Structure prediction request, 112 residues.
Amino acid sequence: QVQLVESGGDLVQPGGSLKLSCAASGFTFSSYTVSWVRQAPGKGLEWVSSIYSGGGVTSYADSVKGRFTISRDNAKNTVYLQMNSLKPGDTAVYYCTSRGSRGQGTQVTVSS
Prediction:
């Protein structure tokens, strides 16, 4: 079955950087769009970014555009989210999603 495992979350100071990873298995990874969504404390899920099957097309929420970069390595069945210039408002659990499934999430905390 579809399995998505996120990693890379941490506590980081404002202005810092983190790189999240999402390792996928159980489906033909290269053929599907993969997205990152996040959930801040007390709030609903927010779409962050998507990368389409070929890897050449990406999209971003306005709140992260210019600061976050999504990429994929189809040979490793992995999607990445490079997050720069982090703000306290980026604090959330970050989830990887594809084919209607979601991983367990990884916690990102931005605080001084």
